[in-house]
Write a structure and sequence with these properties.
Strand order of the largest sheet: 1-4-5-12-8-9-16
Strand content: over 45%
Distance between the termini: 29 Å
Largest sheet: 7 strands, antiparallel
Low-confidence stretches: 1-24, 26-39
Radius of gyration: 26 Å
Length: 427
């Protein structure tokens, strides 16, 4: 059975003709302004750290040049005459602490050098599985030495989903969006629920030559939500008026077969009360069963299914799986999150575990010798706890899985899992 991945679509539509010019959320009569002050200071964050991806670097001199990040999401264009001498220019992707982020952040070096001419920075801003951006409201932003984030205007290409800004200095940079739809759970089990929320930045869009502080995104007031709608697929929006913000979606039971397992949900909003133009944000939620493949003594694949992976209140991730035939079961648990967790029987530590019942035999992650009970070689390796596509993924190996009835008899059990995440207490 193939694991389905989420695809997300973003569509921006103009409905009605408008004659006034809007600068996006916060323009005109701001529905919920974000004035600076003691009660609402600009966002101050720590510095991002390199995420492990490779940096790109290049020596650029007075003739100018270009440099693109390793993921293709940021491009620097240095015009002739911007540098008076050769500069070792580098782009390093870093963790993004900007609350209005539209993609990763980047550390641009050299820092502290003022350019003779502005340099162009172009950001590509694809949607993620859980966040859909309105390309009309993309901006560029950078972090000052005190930790504050400031946004500045740019040239937007809504088709390419890019924004290009100009600067005479380097530091930590990020694209931001003044309007976005956040899907709490882009992958759901049968009858699972997900919240959907539209956020906006109440600070007006910066004008040419202007920089504005970034504040925490706010809920778009319901008076500016025109309509939530299921465009296609199953499930139900839990709503009285279909104009609430946030709103909840409930998946169907049983899980529908593809392509009906993919539900497209849209929301139409009017960001500026002075402009009748509306924006349509659209994303997908997939209803699916998780898949686990297991082998005993390197035999054929045995297919198990699971509704979800849960992070429970004891501090463990846990998956309960079954086959379509009655009586077969697989339970996997491990502590904390991503990482390699070897089996142990130390009562003072949190330990992973794998137990299997198949064709009348039950196996665990310990075995016995003549003298003692030992943990099996192997363990659980969790690769992802749902970041990106909403699936918890990993592998497990129980090299000496003891038979519950006779723990001295062992088999080798190996397997992999990709199961939708249902809870997100673990960050």
């Amino acid at each position: 059975m193939r694991i389905a991945y989420i695809s997300l679509i973003m569509c921006c539509a103009t409905i009605f003709a408008g004659c006034s010019k809007s600068n996006g959320p916060g323009g005109g009569d701001d529905p919920n302004p974000n004035p600076p002050g003691e009660d609402n200071p600009p966002v101050m964050t720590g510095k991002g750290v390199p995420d492990g991806s490779a940096a790109t670097q290049k020596s650029i001199g007075a003739a100018g040049g270009t440099l693109t990040s390793v993921d293709g999401l940021l491009t620097l264009t240095v015009p002739a005459g911007a540098f008076t001498s050769n500069q070792n220019v580098s782009i390093q992707r870093i963790s993004n602490l900007n609350p209005s982020a539209a993609g990763p952040a980047f550390r641009l070096l050299p820092e502290g050098v003022t350019f003779a001419k502005p340099v162009s920075i172009t950001f590509k801003c694809p949607d993620t599985d859980s966040t859909i951006f309105a390309p009309e409201y993309l901006r560029g932003s950078y972090q000052k030495a005190n930790g504050g984030w400031w946004k500045l205007p740019g040239t937007i290409n809504t088709t390419a989903r890019t924004v290009t800004v100009q600067t005479t200095h380097f530091s930590d940079w990020s694209a931001v969006s003044d309007l976005k739809l956040v899907i709490e759970q882009p992958v759901l089990p049968a009858e699972g629920r997900s919240g959907l929320t539209v956020y906006y930045d109440g600070n007006p869009a910066p004008q040419p030559g202007q920089e504005l502080a970034i504040y925490l995104p706010k809920l778009l007031p319901e008076t500016y939500v025109r309509r939530w709608k299921i465009e296609k697929g199953g499930g139900k929006l839990v709503s009285r008026t279909f104009k609430e913000n946030p709103i909840s979606f409930r998946a169907d039971r049983p899980v529908p077969k593809p392509p009906n397992d993919l539900t497209t949900i849209s929301v139409e909003v009017q960001p500026d009360p002075k402009d009748p133009k509306t924006v349509k944000l659209q994303g997908n939620i997939r209803t699916t069963l998780g898949m686990l493949l297991l082998k005993i003594n390197d035999g054929n694949d045995i297919e198990f299914i699971a509704d979800y992976a849960v992070y429970d209140n004891t501090g463990y991730w846990r998956i309960n799986a079954r086959t379509e035939s009655w009586g077969n079961a697989l339970v996997i648990h491990w502590p904390v999150g991503v990482g390699d967790f070897p089996f142990s029987i130390n009562p003072l530590t949190k330990n992973p575990g794998v137990t299997v019942t198949y064709n009348g035999n039950s196996y665990g992650y310990t075995y016995e010798t003549e003298k003692e009970v030992l943990p099996s070689p192997g363990g659980v390796f969790c690769k992802n706890t749902g970041t990106g596509d909403g699936y918890v993924r990993g592998d497990f190996t129980v090299s000496k899985a003891g038979n519950v009835r006779d723990p001295k008899r062992t088999v080798k059990i190996t397997g992999s899992f990709a199961v939708p995440r249902i809870r997100t207490e673990e960050q």
